[in-house]
Structure formats: C-alpha cells, structure tokens
What does this fold into?
Amino acid sequence: MILPGATLGLLGGGQLGRMFTIAARTMGYEVMVLDPDPESPAAVFATEHLCAPYSDAAALARLASRCAAVTTEFENVPATSLQSIAEHIPVRPSAENIHIARDRILEKKTIRDIGLDTVEYQVIQTESDLDHALQNISLPAILKTATLGYDGKGQIVISDAAELKKAYQQLGSTPCVLEQRIELACEISVVLARSICGHIETFNAAENRHHNGILDISIIPARVNAEVASSAERMARMLAEELDYCGVLAVEFFVDKDDRLMINEMAPRPHNSGHFTLDASLTDQFQQQVRTLCGYRPGKTDLTSSSVMVNILGDAWEEGNPAWNELLKNPGVFLHLYGKKEPRAGRKMGHFTCVGNTVDDLLNQAYTLKKIIPGHDNNLP
Ligand code: ADP
Ligand code: MG
It folds into this structure.
C-alpha cells in the first residue's frame, strides 16, 4: 500500500490529470506531473511540474526515482517511456494494457479474442489491404486510424467504394481499421476500477450523446433496459479481468435497435462520461484512480442522484465569457472549469452536471442551460 505523504507520478497534465491531481492532493499525496505544456491544467495543483517531452530521459528518471507509482491520463505516452519507468516503480495501468488501448487494431483483436462483441471490421495495414477490406464490409463504413485518434479525429466516413483509397491517403496511409457504420439506438459507457488484488467496482452505465464526434451530454443512469445495463457491466468486468487490469477503465459500447451490445473502444483511464461521479457518486472516478494506484480497493460507487453532464467547449466563448451565473444560481447544478486560457472551438474547457430526481427533468434543464450559457455576461470570470 502506498500511504498518504508519498509522491504519485502522472503522465499527462490535461483536465483528467488535473482532476486526478486534485483528488490525490485532497487525500494527502504529493503529485509530480510530466507534461510538455507550460500551461498544463494539472500543473497548478501539482507539487512539481516536469515541463518536458514524454520521452525526456531526465524527466523520466526523476519520476522513477521520486515517485512511489505512476499513472497516466492519456494513452499516447510512448511505450518506451512507460517501460523505462516500470523497471523501477509500479505503472498502473500496465504499459501493456495502455498499449492495447491506444491501438484500435490490437484493441479490437483483444476484445474479440476474449469472446466479446465489436462491430464488423477489417484491418488495413497497407494500401494493398483496401480491396480485400471492401469485399468484407458493406457500406457505409468508417475508416479510422489505428492510433492517435480522439474526439472523432482521424476518422472518415466511406459511403462509396471509390472514396476509400483517397480517404486512406488523407489519413496519412497509416494502419487503420475499416468499420461497419451501424445505426445506433444509443451509446453507453461503463467506467470501472479494479485493484491490484482484483476487486472491481463499476459505476452506473452512462448514456452518451455526441456532437461532431465529441461527447456532448452524458445521462445517468442510461435509459436502456436493465438487461442491457447489466450485460454492459458484465462485459466491462470481463474485459478488466481478462486483461488483469489495475486502475480505472472506461468501456464505450454501441447499442443497436435490437439491443445488441458491441464494444466500441476502451480508455485506460478516467473518462469524460464518468465526470458525473464527481457530483453524483459516493466515490468519484479520480479517487478510484488514486486508490487503485496506491494499492487500495476501489471505493463504493453508489449513485447518490440521477445526473446529466454537459461538456463546455471553447465554442461557448464565441460572444464573450459564458453566463456562468445562469449555471451557478441553480443549487442542483455543479460547474467544473479546467483552467484553460484559450477557448478554441471544439476544445474541452469544462463541464457542468445537473443532479436531481428524474432524468427527463434534468435533460430539460441541461438543454436549457446549454443554450443560455454562451451569453454576454462579461462581468463574471
Ligand atoms: P474517438 O476515439 O474519437 O472517441 P470513436 O471510435 O469512439 O472515436 O468514434 C466517435 C463517435 O463516432 C462514436 O462515439 C460514435 O458516435 C461514432 N461512431 C464511431 N464508429 C461508429 C460506427 N462503427 N458506427 C456508428 N457510429 C460510429
Ligand atoms: Mg470514443
């Protein structure tokens, strides 16, 4: 067990890292953040900010010598960096599991090998695989780069066979998957935490709505029937167990009109759709990350209230500062801002969560507030 007072290492200092750092410091740990961004949102709460590239040998050596264990807020840390730290101290989740989650080809194969369902897909390693892939996938399909895609980036919808080659080149002629594009009844996600000893706690499934490939709203509990929710939980647990996973794992699912559940992808870390846990759960997903990193069992995940989480993107600043007072004047609405200075379009700047009794009322409130906040109230921060 790693006791409070110890220093925890964090690779990546964005908003997820910021919320991990806050949780860790609240619990009495010191946090050392490695992030090349001098304005890293996590750094302001960290004990020490190593402002260097993720492959910087000196920074990695400092982390390995000063920290009791290391975790990560995103999956694109070079595998060699993770491995070099893991030679000295625990890295949780493991470098191997992070590697699986960062590569769609490996991820989908792993999920299928475990016996869990995914959409139909074909692996494309080189241009010569394109014809074969087309013969085995009916259109429309989505071409996705195997690595480095996020928030809908690195994806192109293919409606006509003639478009595929150009799309592949447009994505940089790198390894890809060609996925069947399915008609979704909805999307849900399950976030869980698993200790080094194998104890698992799952949060309630969230129902997720995306806009332009970016998560827009999460609704908790997801409005799916009880069997779908429990199957999703069972599948997420099975995945964590088969991977001998340690840490927080998010599993995204597609649900089709026949209630077929397919795993879309997994994230080896807390997830945007798990932000409701900050305001509507006994333990939140960042506390779970701290607990599992330090060798403890995950905390209890009872939902304290239904909730609707809304992302606030940089677009909300188009006409000046958003009207924060419209959010804050509601006792059941909780605002989280990530401390990013530049509100670029599509950039995740913060979120708010509406908590209360019925999901329908919360959804109405969320959509009303969402429309109101890009206001002109420049007197407020
Ligand atoms: P990212 O890494 O950007 O989250 P995803 O693979 O999760 O990439 O895709 C982003 C979103 O695009 C999904 O949440 C879903 O709404 C939509 N999408 C992706 N793949 C499919 C598919 N095969 N069929 C239908 N919709 C899809
Ligand atoms: Mg996704």
Observations:
- The longest strand covers residues 186-194.
- The CA atoms of residues 86 and 95 lie 8 Å apart.
